[in-house]
């Protein structure tokens, strides 16, 4: 019988630690499928910092490096410059990338570092108990904003895709989700394009995933998926983002 579906070679055959309804597992699979399809597993190096994906090295069947909180782009820069033929990707959450790692991601992008970043935005600090993150929506309740995020005191959420797309070193930026089969298909195309941009030496690439966190959001997995579609994607529109042309 012809096999039509199976585990990608770039994923290990182990149970994951992610909570029920979290889309990290879907995102892992998409990245692994792209690595397999591009035939680059043997020269791929992943970097994961602190966050829900801190144990990503258990799940990807490729070389992996652990980075300090927020510093994955800096580590990836060093690896890619020393090993330019390698395919280097960071796997970061919003509390990591958009907060303590904000300087690293901005400068890696503006330098045009030939790395790929998978950015998982669930609008909350998932690993440490559901605190307000840089991407928490206005009015969204968290353990540190029980009355909802007040933009007068906490400021507005950071739109990472829009911010980075304004930098001249960027080759490709996209925002996607994994809330439906159609969205998963689009997300995989974006991940593949991001890796291809690196392999072709075009520059920095990032794919932002709008992801769920049912436990910390206090929702069922189905409710969380609907919230991404009906609330989160309004503030963070899905689609491809193009950088401004380089001047001078």
Descriptive report:
The chain has one domain: Rossmann fold. The mean pLDDT is 94. α7 links the parallel β5 (170-177) and β6 (204-210). A seven-stranded mixed beta sheet has the order 2-1-3-4-6-5-7, with helices on both faces. The protein has helices spanning 24-38, 72-82, 94-100, 102-110, 151-154, 160-164, 181-199, 214-217, 221-235; strands spanning 44-48, 63-66, 87-93, 116-121, 170-177, 204-210, 239-241. The chain contains nine helices and seven strands, in the order αββαβααβααβαβααβ. α3 crosses α4 (102-110). By secondary structure, it is an alpha/beta fold. The termini are far apart. 36% of the residues lie in helices and 16% in strands.
Helix and strand succession?
HEEHEHHEHHEHEHHE
- The order of strands across the largest sheet is 2-1-3-4-6-5-7
Largest sheet entry: 7 strands, mixed
* Dominant shape: globular
Total DSSP E strands: 7
Secondary-structure-based class equals alpha/beta
CATH fold annotation: Rossmann fold
Under CATH at level 1, the class stands as Alpha Beta
- The residue-averaged pLDDT reads 94
- Radius of gyration, rounded? 17 Å
Share of helical residues: 25-40%
Give the strand content.
15-25%
Number of helices: 9
In brief:
Helices cover 36% and strands 16% of the residues. It is of the alpha/beta class. It has one domain: 3-Layer(aba) Sandwich (Rossmann fold), CATH 3.40.50.970.
Could you name the key traits of this structure?
Rossmann fold, alpha/beta, 248 residues
Write the layout of secondary structure elements.
Layout: H1 24-38, E1 44-48, E2 63-66, H2 72-82, E3 87-93, H3 94-100, H4 102-110, E4 116-121, H5 151-154, H6 160-164, E5 170-177, H7 181-199, E6 204-210, H8 214-217, H9 221-235, E7 239-241
Parallel strand pairs: 1-2, 1-3, 3-4, 4-6, 5-6
Antiparallel strand pairs: 5-7
